[in-house]
């Protein structure tokens, strides 16, 4: 449930989560001295900012409880970031941020921070890929994809390089 003041509008907010944390980014530039209240079941924000220096206010009733004592807030020039620690650190992912299923026009998913519940912590730390420290085996990956190396009849390099279109090319002038 979100309660809004008639003169103030909710700021654009992006959110993402991990098993024990919810990330909220309030996308409001140049917001000086905002009022931010973090409680176990709600987050309240009020502040003036943006290009039009308008008043923004939002009261977010959360899906589940958080731990206000362990949660953090960072007021920056371009936005305000909140790191909300879930009360149940291993309680899994929330299906949505708010305690109601209403779609809010001001609330968007932060895909830059989003990780699926199935992805491992190692993938989160490594950036999700098989890069430095990743343990992906290229040959094994190709086998599962049905590409080179699938089965015992591997094509030779000669077979891969031959191209019937190359045979009767005219010379360059």
UniProtKB/TrEMBL annotation:
GO terms for molecular function: Hsp90 protein binding; protein-folding chaperone binding. It holds the Pfam family CS. GO terms for biological process: chaperone-mediated protein complex assembly; protein folding. Residues 158-173 have a biased composition (Acidic residues). Transmembrane segments: none annotated. CDD domains: p23_hB-ind1_like. One of its GO terms (cellular component) is nucleus. InterPro entries: CS_dom, HSP20-like_chaperone, p23-like. Residues 117-173 are annotated as: Disordered. Residues 8-98 form the CS domain. Belongs to the p23/wos2 family. This is CS domain-containing protein. It comes from Rhynocoris fuscipes.
């Amino acid at each position: 449930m979100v309660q809004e003041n008639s003169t103030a509008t909710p700021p654009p907010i992006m959110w993402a989560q991990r098993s024990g944390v919810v990330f909220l980014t309030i996308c409001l530039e140049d917001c000086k001295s905002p009022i931010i209240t973090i409680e176990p079941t709600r987050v309240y924000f009020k502040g003036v900012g943006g290009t039009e220096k308008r008043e923004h206010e939002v009261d977010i009733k959360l899906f589940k409880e958080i731990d206000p004592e362990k949660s953090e807030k960072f007021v920056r020039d371009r936005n305000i970031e909140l790191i909300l620690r879930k009360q149940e650190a291993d309680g899994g992912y929330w299906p949505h941020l708010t305690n109601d299923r209403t779609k809010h026009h001001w609330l968007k998913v932060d895909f830059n921070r989003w990780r699926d519940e199935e992805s491992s912590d190692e993938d989160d730390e490594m950036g999700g890929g098989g890069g430095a420290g990743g343990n992906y085996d290229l040959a094994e990956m190709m086998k599962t994809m049905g590409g080179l190396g699938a089965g015992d009849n591997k094509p030779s390099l000669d077979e891969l390089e031959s191209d019937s279109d190359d045979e009767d090319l005219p010379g360059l002038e």
